[in-house]
Amino acid sequence: MSGLSTDYILETIEMIKQHHLDIRTVTLSISLRDCINSNIKKTGINIYDKITRLAENLTPMAKELEEEYSIPIINKRIAVTPISIIGESADEYDYVYLAKKLDEAAKAVNVDFIGGFSALVEKGCTRGDSALISAIPVALKETDRVCASVNLATSKAGINMNAVEKMGHIIKQCAQLTADKNGLGAAKLVVFCNSPGDNPFMAGAFHGYGEPECNLNIGVSGPGVIRAAVASLPDDADFGEVANKIKRTAYKITSTGELIGRELAQRLNVPFGVIDLSLAPTPAIGDSVANILEAMGLERCGTHGTTAALAMLNDAVKKGGIMASSYVGGLSGAFIPVSEDAGMIEAAKLGALTIDKLEAMTCVCSVGLDMIAIPGNTPAETISGMIADEMAIGMINKKTTAVRLIPVPNKKVGDYAVFGGLLGEAPIISVNKFSSEKFIKRGGRIPAPIHSLNN
CA angle at residue 186 from 185 to 191, to 5 degrees? Predict the structure, then answer.
């Protein structure tokens, strides 16, 4: 990391100490395609052996870098080939067993999460896909570090509404099986439209089919740094000035992240993959995407103007980041996970932030309806309807969108749910009381849109 000016180093130290700049995650992405075996037990052993062999130095070397450069690396993670593919050739399916082997491997190498208990079903399900999806609730209940994801739609394939209906029930089951933890199982499950295969963030990380044998993807985050930059501007600074300030700050954040990522990849002797530019908040005060929007002049995140402010923020972060790295990927934008963002938690408590406003915000941000606590008695079909809406936004706009909802068992609107750690806490917010059941029961596939007649 030579060649950095003294001013740059001092500025970076200030961003770390004062404004929560960190490397949110280093994610080792591993192909498991050579682990496939007709014997499911042998497949599990192969998975464990490969992960522990390739990832044994990930956490120790990440900690070395933290100490050497005083830059916090919050999470160490692993992403693997979608397990629906890996288990499908077995004579007998046992996807819960495979989830447990993933969990054992994650614990053996001391990473925080392992992603890839996943299926890609935008046009339909194979037998393996169906078996994995059915196994998700039990798999997430009986493991600690495994995360699951299912891709339900793409801009080219349309929306698999049969799978959308199924996932409404699966999310409910995940929450119910972990009722003693406020439905925590549902917090480790996300459904996608246009899911990327190089995403370092959980719960949606998996090793895409076109990825190399193994590589390292980086997720860098600095909402607090961006907020401080915006807040430093005079109140009458116009939006062009605000955008330029965000771009310059995002450039610095991305440069720092790429330097750390490349150094760690070199020490691990694996290729550097991508840097994800996403602004990922935490429950810590001052590390909030909502607070950035409020620094622009909104009294509270969720009021009118919020979507416009978020659109500008997302675009400016990408423009600044892309100038700092030639290998940008993953999700790259601003996350709006309600329970993980202190400003959004407060806005939801005050009623400024509602499901409908959050859905509007997902049209312009990085992901979607994320880490939202809803009443435990919400019908599965209502959850499926919310998923369908979010899939449609992603499909039409050719962007990634996602849904991570927690129907908290035995909780109602106005109650509170605590998930702990980076998953944070959230008030239970209301959903539309009218039924989506007849719509969801139609099934089939919503066709892909025409993109040559946009308007």
Answer: 135
In this structure, is residue 200 part of a structural domain?
Answer: no
| Overall size of the chain counted in residues | 455
Helix (H, G, I), strand (E, B) or coil at 12: helix
Q: How far is the first Cα of the chain from the last one, in angstroms, to the nearest whole number?
A: 47
Per-residue pLDDT reduced to its tens digit, 50-70? 999 999 999 999 999 888 888
Quick: pLDDT tens for 2-18: 455 555 555 565 565 55
Instruction: Answer whether residue 145 shows pLDDT above 60.
Output: yes
- Mark residue 195 as left, alpha or beta (left: phi above 0; alpha: psi -120 to 50; beta: remaining): beta
189 and 224, same structural domain? no
Q: Which residues have C-beta within 8 Å of that of residue 404, sequence separation ≥ 6?
A: 186, 187, 189, 190, 191, 203, 337, 368, 369, 370, 371, 372
Number of structural domains in the chain = 2
Which helix (H) or strand (E) element contains residue 191?
A: strand 189-193
pLDDT tens-digit series, residues 66-100? 888 888 888 899 999 999 999 999 999 999 999 99
Angle at 83 between CA 81 and CA 87, to 5 degrees: 125
**Radius of gyration over every alpha carbon of the chain, rounded to an integer in angstroms:** 21
* Domain limits for position 83: 27-57+67-193
Instruction: State whether 434 and 374 are in the same domain.
Output: yes
d(CA 436, CA 310): 29
Q: Which pLDDT tens digit goes with each residue over 116-139? A: 999 999 999 999 999 999 999 999
CATH of the domain at 226: 3.20.70.20
pLDDT in tens, 417-429: 888 877 888 899 9
Inter-residue contact 245 to 231 (CB < 8 Å): no
The DSSP line for 340-376 is G-HHHHHHHHHTSS-HHHHHHHTTTSSS-EEEEEEET
What is d(CA 418, CA 404) in angstroms, rounded to the nearest whole number? 16
151-189: pLDDT as tens digits: 999 999 999 999 999 999 999 999 999 999 999 999 999
| DSSP E strands, 123-282 | 146-154, 158-160, 189-193, 214-221, 272-276
- Residue 203, preceding peptide bond in cis (omega within 30° of 0): yes
Residue given tokens 């909780």 in the structure block: 411
Domain for residue 431, yes or no?
yes
